[in-house]
């Protein structure tokens, strides 16, 4: 707990206070299983399978995933350090650069993206439950079409909300429930993927036909798909690259979190993406069309027992990634905005409500919308935030923070009325440059590299502006 007079505390409650030594019990295995649970998920499969649907061949798609995850691992590990070193979550970590109050800006942006991801995962889990209900309840398929509201029929709404309540139930049991759930739930979807791969091998009569499926795009058309695809892979975990301190604040040591993540992220993402790529390639051979959605593919199976087991794995695995990746972070982020009114459970409920409002079933309805719009647009917002955090912590402050002042009014992190205008200006510059290509065709190449462009611009602008700071904002050991 922060040792300071209550009258001096600002934007503080126990959920975002520095962790005590007794709370730092996450081992290398916990971080490895965390990434297994988060990486082995249906959106990973959808993304990799979507690359096949967009025209890449199997090795181009897998290489894109591997390179993208090695790139995003760098900011993940850099931002992880502060969480373990000082026991602070992302929105408190961001106070050093954005200000005690100003940290609400990156926290809000991160929370909104997380709410969108929460909705996407809930929509996927809902699809699996809907398939369950069609199989188990006679006439459910007909009843499901009773009406359609905002692009989702009655059965879709029932299934979506059932899965939504499962997520909220876990969150209401706290962060320790998340850790325990992740420890065993993650491997289930890998087993599902292996099962689909065995089906693909048998149905396509070996790996040969899958691996011989040629690329559909070449030359300039290849790069028009490849560059946004690489950005989308980086953008896939651009969210966690910011809020990873939310998890590493519970680490036993820097070594535990760093090795757990370095072993967990690139390997599991690449392996599971490879499964998605090969199975999607097999669907071209078997069904003469690319079926990138595994839940849709499962609908083509007729073995009831196999289908029930597979859909059960989808539900549990989707719960695993949704709770860890898409509720923990925005919960802390919303607490940063409203610390007097929200705790972890209430903030998780707010995330769930926003996930419904963002109509996520429409975001995953088309690979072009999912990859080129959703992933790449939000990358243009999160890349600049990552650039500012890393520039501030590693270059400007050289990893030294005065923790108490992150929670107090009038200290070096309070800047002007709680806001560091230099960070806000650097964020604005990064966002504008990274996304301008979305509306100015001549600059479309900037949008294709949105995360990278935003990161570099914000990094440089922030350091340049901070060097001109007149007030003492540097920390002392």
Automatic annotation (TrEMBL):
- According to its UniProt entry, this protein's organism is Sulfobacillus acidophilus (strain ATCC 700253 / DSM 10332 / NAL)
Q: What are the GO cellular component annotations?
A: plasma membrane
* Ranges annotated as spanning the membrane: 32-54, 61-78, 98-120, 156-172, 184-201, 221-242, 263-292, 304-332, 344-363, 369-391, 419-437, 443-465
Q: Where is it located?
A: Membrane
Q: How does it sit in the membrane?
A: Multi-pass membrane protein
Q: Provide the primary localization.
A: membrane
Please state which protein family the record places this protein in.
Belongs to the purine-cytosine permease (2.A.39) family.
Q: Which CDD domains match?
A: SLC-NCS1sbd_YbbW-like
Q: Which domain of life is it from?
A: Bacteria
Q: Keywords in UniProt for this one?
A: Membrane, Transmembrane, Transmembrane helix
**What's the protein called, per UniProt?**
NCS1 nucleoside transporter family
Which PANTHER family would you find in this protein's record? NCS1 FAMILY PURINE/PYRIMIDINE TRANSPORTER, PURINE-URACIL PERMEASE NCS1
Looking up Pfam families in the UniProt record yields: Transp_cyt_pur (PF02133)
Q: Name one GO molecular function term.
A: nucleobase transmembrane transporter activity
